[in-house]
Design goal:
rod-shaped, transmembrane helix
Length: 42
């Protein structure tokens, strides 16, 4: 690995999209857990 090699970081748009998808997946997981609790209480 040379000091002149370009950084292998993804571009900003891709990182933003990954953050958004991560937040969306956490939200969906929490929504599923909440739905299971609501269904279980009935």
């Amino acid at each position: 690995m040379l000091w002149s090699d370009p950084d292998n970081e993804p571009p900003k748009e891709l990182r933003d999209m990954q953050d958004m998808l991560r937040r969306l997946s956490i939200f969906l997981a929490l929504a599923m857990v909440l739905a299971m609790i609501v269904i279980g209480l009935r």
